[in-house]
């Protein structure tokens, strides 16, 4: 027994020693991370520094939004009027997020850049990059401030280890505006109005910084931020917008003579541009193309009556529309003739009308040559509804769910074909998104001028805008603008902006800035204008075109009161909530520093 | 005085001695003679009743006499006994049986249900089951287990072992079930992966599922930390150990088996017919046409004549019942010096679509040789090759997506003309045509050879010491070839929106499909290799009654991989799936990184020690540690120590233990620390990564961007689980065995995002930190019974397990009270609480009168809507504010932990056997909210047609159906208790009926055995949820269903 215990303990001693001694070898686990960029190679390499800024551009520069469904520009289909537009609002759903991703990237970039030695980066480039980064910081802050009012101002890289330093309270709106102006002034100082090198086309310029400054000061003077109509704000805005227009003009910027080509040809109207081109940076226009020429998503931004009639006639006079008289054949025929043939350039550049040729290389199924795309309707008495005639004109053709007979064609890539599986495999040409253009600088300036009573300056801008649209000057050389009082000119601006900037993501923000949701609410439901084939009239031939008067005689314009098809769908925007609420899920992370806006039950006043 | 324990000891050793001496003198049976009676010479063989392996060492004794002999290594014996005497045949681990003496007998022994003498593989070695102190479940593969109609090995484990939970996968070829061991005790995004070890080599779940069941000898599952601590930083999810077959010395045994079978799909949720879909569309949208899909009465009337109103069954038009055929061939045998097992199998699966197939090849050769008396070499070579032929997935996704799409798709869209031409039904493609290959294919070829070499050397001068060197290497070659092409569709005459001609005479023109912009060919290639080196010292020796055993292991593992994708768009002249035919223009070709196989190398090193001690097999103890190093962590965080210990006491061996009906009673307890290193590599390093691009220049070009990666966490480490396990093993009344275990796991340092640490104004991606805590506990119970009644052998085994985990520390941005985690079960369910439905105008009037400000996220109450309990106001104030918003969400169910049940039944009678496995879950809730969705221009759940609220059916069960485009639908469809139901179920997971021809007949033709069988999987499920909605193990009502599989097979052994 004793012997066995002795042996056992001897075994345990040996085993224990082995177990303790053996694991001494701990080497050999130092592998290299081959899937990331080594930090040591970034801030001493001019290309990498530039590449960091590229990412900021890539993540901040807007593209196409296709959001006409948010206002009275277009409709995406029946029952698509949003809850916000119907007045069904709650902070849980309608919130806007604080989004600091590109604030931090610009802060980090600026902090790192300031430490880069001139041996690494030429000082002129360093200045340029600083200016570009400051512009984007201002841009990102403005996106938040315009929606929410003041937000926490963070201007340097934060230290995540010092968590108390991360807690920054909301700054006053006025403080944010001041800081944004500081960045934009600095950017304007550091950046050229036009880049000398062609390879830099598309970078932010001095003009973009000045343009943004003018726009922000105009917003800050507008009823949303300036309910007491403090005239000094308008004066500031006027000065800034005028400076932007003047500098731009001095640098050669101007209205592009051809409105449609603003989005197809590089031109002097582009202040900011996001170039979409096949095949490196393609834009998929599937959402706004009609079903036979696309796949999957379709039917966005179908123009509705309010937009269709907003475009003036070629002589500048309003496109009158009286639904009560449509039953009068003579009125109807004249209306159609005016509607299709007597409009300004912008109408044709922005709106595709069913019954004309759709701008695509694709052919309609079964057709061997270019034919009209017949997006029109006939009355189906048996079922008490209008039905699309496309399938009858082209037997077997797939008719889409398009309901208005009109489509958004602004900036549409006309070389793009049906084969659009994903943006990566799409065939196409070019389509430039132009988030800021000279026309906007002009109209901002004109609007500010009007608010200061400088009506001739304001009217002159409108005339320039209309002249470019090839509207006839008329006998009184007023391009159809009859407004004279400040209030009338203001209305003229509201109308002109709707037309000039249709589908450019300006309409709803403008209406909010002016606090004029009543313009939408007074319309009631979203109305349609259908092109309907007359009872007993023959179907059009595939090559017929609605621009042809004899073809038109077979059709009538018909008014549809509610395109959503449901009486509970009508514009009923809430007139007591003008700022958006902060996301409750962000407030709960930082309740003391992020008070909710006062319109939404919180303590923060965005007007301060 | 001699103490009681000493007496027992003496008694035990005496009996051992006696047994040995008995056997030794029984070696000469010829000496025994009898004159009074006629004697006969019995020549026989003893076999395992299941796999017919020879039972070397089985004892054959004449009843009523001490005359006995033992079977040799071929299972053969010879004994001279009086005629008409009876022979008792016994063997450790098997039920003893009595047979009549006859000149030529084949004796088959059943394994005993309570075979505590079994040796169980436990990681880097093995241990006798009776000496185990940890929580270990073992499953010896039976004949029936190989005959399961499944190509995924994990399916075989369902319902077999308590605490081993196996989900039922969809019936798509190659779909593997999810296997979890006990309850997951982490909230880390990567979960707690189960570790798979195949013949000592650590491998992946895919490798496990790809094994051929024919090659498997047994599977062990390690459940508690005392057992899994051998795998240290990867043991927290439990470990599955697989031992493949090795040869047994003796005559060569050659087995061939074949089976073939088909699958029938179990039900999806019942859907609307064409006529119902049309009527429902009009009912939902009486005045509008949100999808441009409005139905007229004449449309509906037309479809009354298409398939009796069902319309075109797009799935039915392309569906075929999946089928599986397999062939298995194996040979094993050998001599004392060299033993071999060689097996090969081929499984062919045809999926539900013409263009969906799955072929699986497995080859294995396990050779063991004894080069010298002390040196044994094992060489295991295996090869797995999976070939998947699949339809293209550009139009609606993978076969899962295709299934759902075809199931619900517009019932007015015919797939084929009357001569089988694909119809253009107005979309980019005809999905039916793609399922037969018109649009090309995606074929993949997965090849994995594994080489496993092991040398075991018994050190001659140290008794009980042996050394093992094991080197294994595997390669993974993964290639996927994609060929996609455009094809011709036929444009048909149409009347209105819905009526499409299917007659060839109605062809108007043709149209080229546009599911791809141009035909292309692409190859994705991935290559991986890994190697594992183990050096091990084993020691086992008895010092009197002290028995010690242990091993020390060094393990080194390195894995690397690389890969790329390349393709060419366009075929200039001739479109075929060959590279030579594709465009030669540089602009048309592309190459990119294959993210699945990026060029990386990872590695681990470990030191393992495991020690066992027992005193007379009565007092048991073990100690295990692993010292683990993983390159996933920063150099100073790289090494971790994982110790565990356990003790056991076999009470029934104590002399004071005098309970007659208890054959064996053991109590055991263990505690240990294990880790989970399921963490991405290099989280601890600062990095920059590719960012977004900008496009500058009048001749624009891509200006590629870079940006910072996430903030590094230099202190990153593995999460740890401190697990305790208490178990009782009991064998009683000779035929019963039972195990009950209770476990508790405290998991800490769980890797998670500290969401509440920084305000929303801090935007860089914070790294995950090790901070979370989850506590969990549970029980596993197992009860087995095996007996014989007349000529029927039967056995049954019931398993049950329950586990509950609770968040102790988990950050959450709890905007609403119901979002808080801490203190709540990991499976709690939150949502709105339904207070009623507004069925009549009267209801609505009364409701609005009583609740004047009531709205649901801004929506005013309306007829046919659910109304919810107003529980709180803004800012989580516990007073109703008249409005229903997210603050009114509440905990609907504190936990949703099911009790997982398994039941195995088996019986044998005269060569007929039946084996059945049921598994089930009770006490479980499931949401059927997926049925509230669906767009009304597709087929939807038919209850929306027949049982939803309208003014004419105010008492219907479901609320009003809104259009999918209408935001108001959220009022009814938001997550609430309305959309939950009890999802308990019991499933007949597996049934096997087999008949083996009597051996006396088959042996005459030189065959050892012939077996025929029928087996079925998932034949039925008993569940209320299934009856009312769909199978509770399905992900949704229109998902690819679980398959009922049946197959027939035969097996012949030479």
UniProtKB/TrEMBL annotation, chain A:
The keyword Membrane applies. Residues 234-600 form the RagB/SusD domain. One of its GO terms (cellular component) is cell outer membrane. Residues 93-216 form the SusD-like N-terminal domain. Residues 1-26 form the signal peptide. Keywords: Cell outer membrane, Membrane, Signal. It is found in: Cell outer membrane. This is RagB/SusD family nutrient uptake outer membrane protein. It comes from Pinibacter aurantiacus.
Automatic annotation (TrEMBL), chain B:
It is a multi-pass membrane protein. GO terms for biological process: siderophore transmembrane transport. It is found in: Cell outer membrane. The keyword Heme does not apply. GO terms for cellular component: cell outer membrane. Residues 1-26 form the signal peptide. It holds the Pfam family CarbopepD_reg_2. InterPro entries: Plug_dom (IPR012910), TonB-dep_OMP_SusC/RagA (IPR023996), TonB-dep_OMP_SusC/RagA_CS (IPR023997), TonB-dep_rcpt-like (IPR039426). Residues 133-239 form the TonB-dependent receptor plug domain. It comes from the Bacteria. Keywords: Cell outer membrane, Membrane, Signal, Transmembrane, Transmembrane beta strand, Transport. The keyword Aminoacyl-tRNA synthetase does not apply. One of its GO terms (molecular function) is siderophore uptake transmembrane transporter activity. Belongs to the TonB-dependent receptor family. This is SusC/RagA family TonB-linked outer membrane protein.
């Amino acid at each position: 027994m004793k012997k066995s215990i002795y042996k056992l303990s001897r075994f345990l001693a040996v085993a224990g020693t082995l177990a303790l001694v053996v694991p001494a070898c701990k080497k050999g686990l130092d592998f290299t991370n081959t899937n990331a960029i080594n930090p040591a190679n970034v801030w001493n390499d001019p290309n990498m520094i530039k590449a960091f800024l590229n990412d900021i551009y890539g993540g901040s520069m807007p593209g196409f939004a296709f959001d006409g469904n948010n206002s009275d520009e277009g409709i995406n289909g029946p029952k698509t009027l949003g809850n916000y537009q119907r007045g069904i609002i709650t902070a849980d759903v309608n919130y806007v997020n604080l989004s600091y991703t590109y604030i931090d990237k610009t802060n980090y970039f600026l902090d790192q850049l300031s430490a880069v030695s001139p041996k690494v980066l030429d000082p002129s480039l360093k200045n340029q990059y600083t200016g570009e980064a400051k512009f984007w910081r201002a841009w990102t802050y403005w996106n938040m401030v315009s929606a929410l009012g003041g937000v926490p101002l963070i201007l340097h890289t934060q230290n995540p280890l010092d968590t108390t330093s991360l807690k920054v309270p909301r700054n006053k709106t006025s403080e944010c505006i001041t800081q944004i102006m500081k960045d934009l002034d600095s950017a304007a100082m550091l950046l050229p109005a036009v880049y000398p090198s062609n390879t830099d086309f598309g970078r932010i310029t001095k003009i973009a910084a000045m343009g943004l400054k003018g726009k922000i000061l105009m917003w800050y003077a507008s009823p949303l931020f300036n309910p007491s109509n403090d005239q000094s704000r308008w004066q500031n805005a006027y000065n800034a917008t005028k400076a932007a227009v003047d500098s731009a003009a001095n640098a050669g910027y101007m209205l592009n003579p051809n409105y449609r080509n603003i989005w197809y040809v590089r031109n002097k109207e582009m202040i900011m541009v996001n170039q979409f081109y096949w095949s490196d940076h393609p834009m998929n226009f599937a959402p706004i193309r009609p079903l036979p020429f696309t796949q999957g998503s379709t039917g966005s931004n179908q123009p509705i009556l309010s937009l269709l009639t907003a475009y003036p006639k070629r002589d500048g006079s309003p496109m009158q529309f009286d639904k009560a008289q449509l039953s009068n054949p003579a009125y109807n025929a004249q209306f159609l003739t005016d509607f299709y043939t007597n409009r300004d350039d912008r109408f044709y550049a922005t709106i595709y009308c069913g019954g004309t040729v759709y701008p695509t290389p694709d052919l309609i199924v079964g057709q061997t040559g270019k034919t009209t795309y017949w997006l029109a309707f006939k009355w189906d008495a048996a079922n008490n509804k209008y039905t699309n005639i496309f399938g009858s004109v082209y037997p077997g053709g797939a008719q889409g769910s398009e309901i208005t007979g009109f489509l958004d064609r602004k900036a549409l890539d006309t070389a793009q074909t049906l084969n659009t599986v994903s943006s990566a495999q799409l065939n196409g040409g070019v389509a430039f998104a132009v988030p800021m253009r000279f026309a906007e600088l002009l109209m901002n300036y004109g609007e500010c001028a009007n608010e200061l009573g400088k009506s001739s300056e304001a009217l002159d801008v409108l005339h320039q805008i209309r002249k470019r649209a090839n509207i006839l000057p008329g006998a009184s050389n007023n391009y159809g603008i009859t407004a004279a009082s400040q209030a009338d000119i203001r209305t003229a601006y509201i109308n002109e902006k709707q037309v000039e900037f249709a589908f450019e993501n300006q309409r709803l923000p403008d209406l909010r800035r002016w606090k004029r949701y009543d313009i939408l609410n007074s319309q009631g439901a979203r109305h349609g204008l259908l092109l309907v084939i007359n009872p007993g009239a023959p179907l059009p031939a595939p090559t017929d075109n609605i621009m042809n008067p004899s073809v038109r005689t077979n059709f009538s314009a018909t008014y549809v009161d509610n395109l959503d098809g449901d009486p509970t769908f009508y514009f009923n925007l809430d007139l007591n909530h003008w700022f958006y609420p902060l996301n409750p899920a962000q407030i709960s992370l930082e309740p003391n520093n992020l008070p909710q806006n006062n319109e939404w039950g919180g303590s923060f006043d965005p007007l301060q | 005085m001699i103490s009681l324990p000493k007496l027992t000891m003496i008694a035990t050793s005496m009996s051992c001695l006696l047994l040995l001496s008995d056997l030794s003198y029984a070696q000469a049976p010829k000496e025994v003679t009898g004159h009074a009676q006629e004697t006969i010479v019995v020549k026989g063989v003893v076999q395992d009743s299941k796999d017919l392996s020879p039972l070397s060492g089985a004892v054959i004794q004449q009843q009523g006499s001490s005359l006995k002999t033992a079977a040799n290594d071929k299972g053969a014996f010879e004994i001279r006994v009086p005629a008409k005497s009876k022979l008792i045949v016994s063997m450790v681990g098997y039920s003893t049986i009595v047979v009549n003496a006859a000149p030529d007998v084949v004796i088959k022994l059943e394994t005993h249900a309570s075979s505590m003498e079994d040796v169980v593989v436990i990681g880097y070695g093995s241990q006798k089951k009776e000496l185990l102190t940890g929580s270990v479940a073992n499953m010896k593969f039976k004949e029936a287990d190989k005959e399961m109609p499944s190509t995924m090995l994990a399916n075989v484990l369902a319902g077999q072992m308590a605490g081993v939970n196996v989900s039922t996968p969809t019936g798509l070829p190659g779909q593997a079930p999810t296997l979890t061991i006990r309850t997951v005790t982490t909230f880390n995004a990567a979960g707690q992966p189960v570790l798979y070890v195949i013949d000592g080599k650590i491998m992946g779940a895919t490798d496990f599922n790809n094994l051929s069941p024919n090659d498997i000898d047994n599977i062990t599952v390690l459940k508690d930390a005392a057992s899994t601590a051998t795998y240290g930083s990867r043991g927290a999810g439990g470990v599955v150990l697989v031992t493949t077959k090795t040869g047994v010395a003796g005559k060569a045994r050659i087995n061939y088996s074949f089976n073939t079978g088909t699958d029938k799909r179990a039900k999806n949720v019942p859907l609307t017919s064409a006529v119902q879909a049309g009527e429902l569309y009009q009912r939902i949208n009486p005045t509008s046409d949100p999808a441009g899909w409005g139905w007229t009465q004449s449309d509906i009337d037309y479809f009354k004549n298409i398939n009796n109103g069902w319309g075109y069954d797009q799935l039915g038009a392309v569906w075929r019942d999946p089928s599986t055929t397999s062939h298995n061939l194996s040979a094993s045998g050998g001599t004392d010096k060299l033993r071999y097992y060689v097996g090969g199998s081929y499984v062919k699966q045809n999926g539900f679509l013409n263009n969906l197939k799955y072929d699986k090849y497995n080859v294995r050769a396990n050779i063991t040789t004894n080069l010298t008396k002390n040196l044994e070499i094992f060489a295991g070579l295996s090869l797995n090759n999976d070939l998947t032929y699949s339809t293209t997935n550009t139009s609606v996704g993978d076969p899962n997506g295709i299934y759902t799409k075809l199931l619900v798709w517009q019932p007015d869209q015919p797939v084929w003309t009357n001569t089988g031409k694909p119809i253009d039904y107005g979309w980019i493609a005809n999905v039916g045509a793609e399922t037969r290959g018109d649009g090309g294919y995606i074929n993949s070829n997965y090849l994995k050879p594994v080489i496993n070499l092991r040398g075991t050397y018994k050190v001659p001068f140290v008794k009980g010491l042996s050394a093992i060197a094991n080197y294994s290497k595997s390669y993974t070659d993964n290639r996927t070839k994609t060929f996609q092409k455009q094809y011709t569709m036929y444009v048909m005459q149409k009347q209105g929106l819905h009526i499409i001609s299917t007659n060839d005479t109605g062809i108007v023109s043709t149209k080229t499909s546009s599911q791809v912009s141009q035909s292309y060919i692409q190859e994705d290639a991935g290559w991986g290799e890994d190697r594992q080196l183990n050096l091990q010292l084993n020691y086992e020796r008895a010092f009197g009654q002290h028995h010690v055993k242990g091993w020390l292991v060094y393990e080194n593992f390195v894995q690397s991989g690389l890969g790329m994708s390349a393709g060419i768009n366009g075929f200039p002249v001739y479109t075929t799936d060959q590279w030579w035919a594709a465009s030669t223009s540089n602009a048309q070709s592309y190459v990119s990184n294959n993210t699945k196989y990026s060029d990386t190398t990872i590695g681990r090193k470990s030191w393992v020690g495991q020690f066992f001690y027992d005193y007379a097999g009565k007092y048991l103890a073990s100690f295990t540690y692993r010292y683990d190093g993983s390159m996933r962590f920063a150099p100073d965080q790289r090494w971790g120590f994982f110790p565990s210990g356990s003790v056991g006491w076999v009470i029934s061996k104590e002399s004071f233990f005098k309970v007659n009906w208890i054959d064996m009673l053991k109590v055991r307890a263990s505690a240990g620390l294990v880790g989970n290193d399921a963490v991405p590599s290099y989280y601890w390093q600062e990095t920059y990564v590719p960012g977004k691009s900008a496009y500058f220049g009048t001749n624009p070009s891509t200006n590629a961007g870079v940006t910072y990666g996430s903030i590094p966490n230099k202190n990153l480490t593995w999460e740890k689980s401190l697990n305790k396990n208490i178990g009782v093993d009991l064998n009683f009344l000779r035929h019963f065995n039972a195990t009950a275990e209770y476990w508790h796991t405290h998991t800490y340092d769980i890797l998670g995002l500290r969401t509440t640490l920084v305000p929303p104004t801090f935007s860089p991606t914070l790294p995950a930190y090790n901070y979370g805590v989850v506590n969990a506990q549970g029980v596993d119970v197992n009860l087995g019974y095996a007996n014989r009644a007349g000529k029927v052998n039967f056995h049954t085994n019931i398993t049950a397990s329950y586990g509950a985990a609770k968040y102790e520390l988990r950050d959450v941005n709890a905007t609403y009270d119901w979002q808080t985690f801490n203190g709540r079960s990991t499976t709690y369910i939150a949502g709105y609480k339904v207070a009623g439905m507004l069925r009549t105008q009267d209801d609505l009037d009364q409701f609005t009168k009583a609740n004047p400000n009531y709205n649901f996220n801004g929506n005013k109450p309306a007829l046919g809507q659910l109304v919810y309990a107003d529980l709180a106001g803004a800012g989580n104030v516990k007073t109703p504010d008249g409005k229903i918003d997210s603050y009114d969400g509440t905990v609907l169910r504190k936990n949703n932990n099911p009790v997982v049940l398994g039941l195995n039944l088996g019986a044998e009678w005269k060569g007929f056997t039946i084996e059945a496995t049921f598994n089930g879950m009770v006490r479980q809730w499931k949401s059927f909210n997926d049925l509230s969705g669906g767009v009304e221009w597709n087929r939807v759940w038919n209850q929306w047609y027949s049982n939803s609220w309208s003014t004419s059916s105010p008492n219907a069960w479901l609320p009003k159906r809104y259009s999918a485009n209408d935001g108001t639908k959220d009022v009814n469809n938001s997550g609430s208790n309305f959309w939950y139901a009890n999802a308990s179920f019991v499933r007949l997971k597996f049934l096997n009926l087999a008949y083996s021809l009597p051996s006396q007949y088959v042996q005459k033709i030189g065959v050892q055995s012939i077996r025929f069988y029928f087996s079925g999987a998932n034949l039925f499920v008993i569940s209320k949820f299934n009856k009312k909605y769909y199978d509770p193990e399905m992900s949704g009502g229109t998902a690819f269903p679980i398959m009922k599989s049946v197959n027939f097979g035969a097996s012949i052994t030479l």
